Amino acid sequence: MLTQTSSRNIFLILVSGFHPASVQFSWFAPDGYEGYGHFGISRKGVEDASDEHCAIFFDKEKVELVEGGTFWLSESPSVPGSISWGALRGVEPPGFSFQIVNTNMDEFSPRARRRGALLTWQHIASLPPSLPVVYCGGFNTQKESTTGRFLLGRSREHGVVGDMRDTWPNARVRKNGSLIRTYHGFRGDEQGALEFLKLIFRALCLCWDRQTQDLHVDWILYRGRSLIPVLCEVVNDNIDGCYPSSHYPMFAEFMLPRSVRLSEAPAQDES
After folding, report:
1. What share of the chain is helix, strand, coil (3-state, %, to 5)?
2. DSSP 8-state class, residue 103
3. What angle do CA 64, 227, 254 make, to 5 degrees?
4. Are strands 97-104 and 83-90 parallel, antiparallel or unpaired?
5. In what order do the strands lie in the sheet with 22-24?
6. N or C: fewer beta carbons within 10 Å in the chain?
7. 4-270 — its CATH code?
């Protein structure tokens, strides 16, 4: 049986191979991540630090925390729930600031996801337009849903429209492009015959609809011309067939301002 402790240990091993500047979790308690600071509080509030966290971790040698906070996707955002945000400043290049927003949206209710997306977008829209933002997490819906279309600027919600961009189709290099779904239910690539046929049908649908790039329910969105996604990967690493989560993690690399030369290089798929 795969417990939360063993899942955490597997994740620690896998994360150590990537050395990311920041890591966003939607259900791990914040302990055991050597070299990383963190912010975000338990879904039960500050009184219970042992419960699951929608936390953001950051490499203390690469970035420093400027400010951070937590609000919840509900009619009362100050009451414990599940979203964190933080403003980070890069150590290299010095002075480069950006904000990361991490979320874990409702698994069952489309209405809850739409309202949660709107609430989060209102926070992002209140930020200075020049501040780059990375918005990621478990959205538990596909990008062609009303939630995805709103955040990506293709539909309105309560009279407003988002302007986020999706890292996956905009990255210069995409790894594991054949994994069109990020939810796998701890089974990895092993699927039953019915699921395999559904996957083939959905893949054909993706070929017909050029606006639909994937069936991911875990996204890395971004805003700001100073962030250029150079790589995005669906991470399917495992240890002896054991996965750290029922969802494949997403990993992205961005080119930062001092090394940026804005160009429209065509994206590549690496399956």
Report:
1. 20, 30, 50
2. E
3. 75
4. antiparallel
5. 22-24, 56-59, 36-39
6. N
7. 3.60.10.10
Radius of gyration of the chain (CA): 18
Classified as helix, coil or strand, 161 is coil
- Output the tens digit of pLDDT for each of the chain's 271 residues: 444 556 667 766 776 777 777 776 665 555 556 778 877 777 666 666 666 667 788 888 888 888 888 887 777 777 766 666 676 777 656 667 899 999 989 899 999 999 999 999 999 999 999 899 999 999 999 998 999 999 999 999 989 999 999 999 999 999 998 888 899 988 887 765 666 676 667 666 655 554 556 889 999 999 998 899 999 999 999 888 888 889 999 999 998 766 444 334 445 566 5
Token pair 């690469």 in the structure block, residue? 62
In this structure, what are the phi and psi dihedrals at residue 242, rounded to the nearest 5 degrees?
-100, 130
Which neighbouring-strand residues pair with 61? none
| This prediction's pTM | 0.79
Helix (H) or strand (E) holding 206: helix 193-208
Cis ω on the peptide bond leading into residue 77 (within 30° of 0)?
A: no
CA 243 – CA 236 distance, rounded (Å): 8
